Amino acid sequence: MVDILSCSLDELRGLFEKFGEKPFRANQVFDWVYNKRAQSLSEMTNLSKGLRERLEKSLAFPVMDIAQRQVSSDGTEKFLLALEDGNYIESVLLKHPDHTTFCISSQVGCPLNCSFCATGASGFTRDLTPGEIVGQVVLMEREQGRPVDNIVFMGMGEPLLNEDSVYKAIDILHEPAGRNLGMRHFTISTAGLPDGIRRLADSGRELKLSISLHSVDDTVRSDMMPVNRKYPLPVLKEALEYYQARTGNRLTFEYALVEGLNDSVDDALRLAEYLKGLKSFVNVIPVNPVNAIHKRPTDAKIQRFIETLKSKRLETALRYERGTDIAAACGQLRQRKGGRAWKGEEA
Q1: Strand boundaries in 96-249, DSSP class E
Q2: Pair 275, 236: CB distance under 8 Å
Q3: pLDDT of 342
Q4: CA distance readout (Å), 265 to 223, 248, 302, 318, 319
Q5: How far apart are CA 290 and CA 13, in angstroms?
Q6: 127-159, pLDDT tens digit by residue?
């Protein structure tokens, strides 16, 4: 059986041609799935009954059930999703006054094991398929009853370690015959994999790119993010310069502020120096409660860090975290079932 949500429009057209059907039937299926939010082939009533029966022997919707759903005091929603093989992922729906954003996962767990992130602590199991990535979007759109405005790959996993599936999912959701979501409405968030950043620059996809930086001291960053041992800061900077030269796009940098580790005025000045020559925006994120090691700085230190960056003419903002009370904020997502705890259960 072929996963229908992993199929591009061209792949579906090829399947219809095998059945002796016109290619426009594939457009009809895309419309049913991505605009009418059909959950089965039987709902697609403008396809003949005979064709639907033939398709049901070849195509299937991926199994993705809501195992649990939590709603934060700020309106953020977190979904624990059960996959067909018994694994679990988490996805987040962020509601704003004039738009909604989905934070979706690209892997079951994460292999990078960043010290401030619960996802890495839960271990790595496997990559998600394109259909499992698309399925998160389809499911949450169906649950909220309206289309999403923005999609960020900031959930579980490193998207540039599963880039083929991530890019295919983006292309499927971008398809004009279906969901038709513009490329600039997608953001890839990476821990900083130079080869993947270069491939994205060369791909022609006008996606937004966000880099988890968190320190510009190689020793500190390597402790926080082991990936830095393989790709130290000078190597990352070269890839970022290449990306910007190829695309002209502004880069967003995520900076998790940790008490006594990377929150001094000197840290801010070194950050400004590292970002020289790059068109940048810095999101300052006071670290979220994940473990006892990393603590949030005082409000005064946070503000001093931000003001120091601004004095160096860096566009900077304080990220107001959403969903912290249900462990849905940055760095808090993890697998929760199958031996791992959901909020309120024993870990």
Answers
A1: 100-103, 107-109, 124-127, 150-153, 186-190, 208-212
A2: no
A3: 35
A4: 20, 30, 10, 16, 19
A5: 46
A6: 999 999 999 999 999 999 999 999 999 999 999
Active site residue 330: yes
- Give me the domains of the chain, ranges plus CATH numbers: 2-60 (1.10.150.530), 64-326 (3.20.20.70)
- pLDDT mean over 291-307: 88
Model confidence at 335: pLDDT above 80: no
| Amino acid identity for residue 109 in this structure | G
Q: Could you tell me the pLDDT band of residue 324, with boundaries at 50, 70 and 90?
A: low
The verdict on whether 7 is a catalytic residue reads no
Look-up: residue for tokens 């502020």?
257
| Closest-CA residue to 289 (of 149, 118, 148) | 118
Is the pLDDT at 275 greater than 70, yes or no? yes
* Non-local CB neighbours of 128 within 8 Å, separated by 6+ positions: 89, 105, 106, 107, 108, 157, 162, 165
Determine which one of 90, 132, 158, 163 is catalytic.
Answer: 90
In tens, the pLDDT along 154-172 reads: 999 999 999 999 999 999 9
SS3 229: helix
Is-contact 134 176, C-beta < 8 A? no
Contacts of 186 (CB under 8 A, 6+ apart): 150, 151, 152, 153, 170, 173, 174, 207, 208
Angle at 203 between CA 198 and CA 204, to 5 degrees: 120
pTM of the model: 0.90
Q: Which of 7, 110, 117, 330 is catalytic?
A: 330
Phi/psi-derived region of residue 312, left when phi > 0, alpha when psi is between -120 and 50, beta in every other case: alpha
